[in-house]
Inverse folding.
């Protein structure tokens, strides 16, 4: 079962709100926030893990706040295009970013990203912790991480792995695997997680680290999960070991999703969204959907989210000095 660890930020946030509920003002004392539809920019393609999560959260926020929350996909450049668009939007709370660990890594890895997550956004809350499957084609003959490592060492430079862009979560974990196992795997970037998954199914690539959104492909026998990242097994695949259990150490990084607002948004907007998310993440429908995808709903205060981002940036900075995380 998904463990919900939503923090006790609601009380603090509520103190900044009007006693009547979400009556925060943005422009005038007569205009509550939100008074019109809110756009949530997803910086990745439709159908991937981030997109699916964002749509679930949007639906739950709409129920809580009484205004439409509309997901808009702006994919490309490892998420930089969407993040850049969100950062440049008016900081009035009507354009949000549904970011991921990849959004933080782009700040380090892409000099042309056009945004800095630390200065261009105000964190609202982490949403989920996402386990990833080490997935191969079921017809590849690779049954375990040890099989993969053996084949890679016997064929240096000939095996490859797919991701959804330089600096993406799949790229980061792939480079961690190369470093930990001392293997030479070629990185092949795609424009989204779903295209990356399809490349493994078709045999165009040998491996990808994929989110639980791709579980239907595993259940259908098109992909085979040979290990799970993180410290525990995935509830939907209880017989698949963690990558540590499979004998590979040093392949771990927290993979989160979270909601952010452009920097300089008012304290009232931040508090309103924080308070609303506290309620939205407890939605029965959201919890049920998260359980079905083996996602852990975590929630957080803006301060905890900020600390997580800073920690991840340090991790990626250190990793980038040892591996190929930048496009050459």
């Amino acid at each position: 079962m998904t463990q919900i660890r939503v923090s006790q930020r609601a009380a603090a946030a509520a103190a900044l709100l009007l006693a009547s509920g979400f009556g925060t003002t943005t422009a005038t004392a007569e205009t509550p926030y939100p008074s019109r539809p809110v756009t949530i920019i997803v910086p990745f393609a439709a159908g991937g893990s981030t997109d699916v999560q964002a749509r679930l959260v949007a639906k739950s926020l709409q129920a809580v706040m009484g205004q439409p929350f509309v997901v808009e996909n702006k994919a490309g450049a490892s998420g930089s295009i969407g993040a850049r668009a969100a950062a440049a939007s008016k900081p009035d709370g009507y354009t949000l970013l549904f970011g991921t660990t990849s959004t933080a890594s782009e700040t380090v890895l892409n000099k042309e990203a056009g945004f800095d997550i630390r200065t261009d956004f105000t964190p609202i809350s982490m949403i989920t912790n996402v386990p990833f499957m080490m997935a191969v084609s079921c017809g590849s003959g690779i049954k375990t991480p040890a099989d993969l490592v053996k084949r890679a060492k016997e064929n240096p430079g000939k095996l490859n792995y797919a991701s959804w862009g330089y600096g993406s979560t799949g790229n980061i974990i792939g480079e961690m695997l190369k470093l930990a196992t001392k293997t030479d795997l070629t990185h092949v970037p795609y424009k989204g997680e779903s295209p990356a998954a399809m490349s493994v199914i078709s045999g165009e690539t040998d491996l990808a680290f994929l989110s639980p959104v791709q579980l239907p492909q595993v259940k259908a026998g098109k992909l085979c999960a040979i290990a799970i990242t993180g410290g525990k097994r995935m509830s939907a695949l209880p017989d698949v070991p963690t990558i540590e259990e499979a004998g590979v150490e040093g392949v771990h990084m927290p993979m989160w999703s979270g909601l952010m607002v452009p920097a300089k948004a008012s304290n009232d907007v931040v508090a309103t969204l924080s308070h609303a998310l506290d309620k939205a993440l407890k939605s029965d429908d959201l919890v049920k959907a998260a359980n079905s995808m083996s996602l852990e709903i975590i929630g957080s205060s803006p301060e905890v989210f900020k600390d997580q981002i800073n920690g991840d940036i340090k991790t990626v900075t250190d990793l980038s000095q040892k591996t190929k995380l930048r496009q050459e």
In short: The first helix runs from residue 9 to 14. The radius of gyration is 20 Å. The first strand starts at residue 24 and ends at 25.
